[in-house]
Design goal:
By secondary structure, the chain is an alpha/beta fold. The protein has a single domain, classed as 5-stranded Propeller (L-arginine/glycine Amidinotransferase, Chain A). The chain contains seven helices and 19 strands. The strands form seven sheets. Strands 4-1-19 form a three-stranded mixed β-sheet, with helices on one face. Strands 7-8-9 form a three-stranded mixed β-sheet, with no helix packed on it. A three-stranded mixed β-sheet has the order 10-11-12, covered by helices on one side. The protein is globular. It binds gamma-amino-butanoic acid.
Length: about 375
């Protein structure tokens, strides 16, 4: 039996153990406030829901299995979740929605900080029960690692009070969305703490958290109180009309180097800690595609949603040739991984994984 230890403090230390999601039984959930706000008005996803076509599930699983094998061939241990029945309604005393989402992508649900794995509150009703897909693994880690801390953030009620009704229109227009996001007026209100784990980036002692559709200020404050030994920084990327999840926007590659989405630049006033500590923030390369694949929630910027295996090695999606070229110029060895046909299931190479173990300790990169 391999020894299990949960430990991961940042996005780049050598990766030794990881969770890779599964596409089994993934659904396009029915309309609901926070999810609708993320779906572009001209998207092919508008107005349809139900189980994803089996051939797309099979193809996505083929790619995810292949990604898992690539990681294993590099000596990285890979665990997989156990899918619950996503066709069942998600129902609490406060809401009901007719189906769930899936067990993709794990990065949205699980935040690993040191020896702790924290289940996020989530902000979509259809994802309220998604943590259950990972509970068998959490139990296993709890059994085998005496220092493992399994934590769960307070489950939110997700009543209508959690969402701004202004966003409940499919005719807002990109211009107005950009104005609203620049004003930090997002679909989620400040009714109760909300966050998705994929809005958080780990830089040792510092956690950088995006305030947007899926994470509100109360969620960030909850994280601040939950991690009292960390410094928690709130960031915004005003160029994004659909701001969810930081990992197609801001991508640390190694100490001192971050890629930033050139359409979603970190505002000057939020760059001080990087500047003061000689970190370089460079524009990411352009995506290789003009549109996302069919039935996909994410933007074409999944091009920069890469998985760093160590400070010199990075997994890049195979068709993202410009991103791969840029990584090469930045001195990274590129591991090509085919995943585009799985993007529709919730994201790219970073999204579809969650860290269990990376070598290294909690360092202070911004003293
Ligand atoms: N989960 C990452 C998606 C972000 C984006 O659509 O750009």
């Amino acid at each position: 039996m391999q020894k299990t230890v949960v430990n991961s403090w940042n996005e780049w230390d050598p990766l030794k153990h990881v969770i890779v999601g599964r596409a089994d039984d993934c659904h396009i959930p029915p309309e609901e406030p926070a999810l609708d706000a993320k779906v572009p008005e001209d998207s092919d996803m508008r107005g349809q829901w139900g189980r994803r076509p089996q051939e797309t599930i099979d193809r996505a699983n083929e790619l995810l299995d292949n990604f898992a094998s690539i990681l294993e061939s590099r000596g990285i241990r890979v665990d997989r979740p156990t899918p619950i029945d996503h066709s069942k309604p998600a129902m609490t005393p406060d809401f009901r929605t007719e189906s769930q989402f899936g067990c993709m992508p794990p990065r949205d649900v699980l935040l690993t900080v040191g020896s702790e794995m924290l289940e996020a509150t989530m902000s979509y009703r259809c994802r309220w029960f998604e943590y259950l897909n990972y509970r068998p693994l959490m139990q296993q880690y709890f059994e085998h690692d005496p220092n493992f801390r399994h934590e769960s953030a307070p489950k939110p009620r997700l009543t209508d009070a959690d969402y701004h009704p202004d966003y409940l229109s499919d005719k807002i227009g990109v211009e107005k969305r950009l104005k609203w996001t620049a004003e930090k007026f997002f679909v989620t209100t400040e009714e109760e703490p909300l966050f998705d784990a994929a809005d958080v980036l780990r830089f040792g002692r510092d956690l950088v958290v995006q305030h947007g559709f899926t994470t509100n200020l109360k969620g960030i404050e909850w994280l601040r109180r939950h991690f009292p030994d960390h410094r928690v920084h709130t960031v915004n990327f005003p160029g994004d009309p659909y701001p969810i999840h930081i990992d197609a926007t801001f991508t640390p590659l190694r100490p001192g180097l971050i890629l930033n989405n050139p359409q979603r630049r970190l505002p000057e006033e939020q760059r001080k800690m990087y500047r003061d500590n000689d970190w370089e923030i460079v524009d990411a390369a352009q995506p290789a595609h003009n549109t996302p694949p069919p039935l996909c929630y994410s933007s074409t910027w999944l091009s920069m949603n890469v998985l760093v295996l160590d400070p010199k090695t990075v997994c890049v999606e195979k068709s993202e040739v410009y991103q791969a070229e840029q990584m090469d110029k930045l001195g990274m060895e590129v591991v090509e991984v085919e995943l585009r046909d799985a993007y529709a299931f919730g994201g790219g190479l970073h999204c579809c994984t969650a860290d269990v173990f990376r070598e290294g300790t909690c360092e202070d990169y911004f003293p």
